[in-house]
Amino acid sequence: GKRSLRQRVVDELKHYYNGFHLLWIDTKVAARMVWRLLHGQVLTRRERRRLLRTCADLFRLVPFLVFVIVPFMEFLLPVFLKLFPEMLPSTFETESKKEEKQKKKLSAKLELAKFLQETVAEMAKRNKADTG
Prior knowledge:
Main location: mitochondrion
Organism: Pampusana beccarii
Number of strands: 0
Number of domains: 3
Order of helices and strands: HHHH
Membrane topology: Single-pass membrane protein
Shape: flat
Low-confidence stretches: none
GO cellular component, one term: mitochondrial inner membrane
Pfam families: LETM1_RBD
Radius of gyration: 22 Å
């Protein structure tokens, strides 16, 4: 059903609160990883990816904070998100956006696999024709 304006505002506030909370947790974990790196320990591949994602999120947070700090600029946020979809930190993504990204990646991978399969088949035909 249709939600009231008050309920939509409360849901958006909860969404941003949860996003900032998750970003704070990621930042604390990333700080520990940097501390470990500075003391000569090696990070696993998963830890390195998480550290890079968190650093990218912190850099994305700077333009996002302008929308939060400047009065009434949050009304322009949907326009900017349409123009720059990767502007929000990853902790602020909704499940539907994550699923949409995964579908796009999967379709791109399938197209690439199809292309490579056709190329290999064509090369096999050429080799067979050359040897025959």
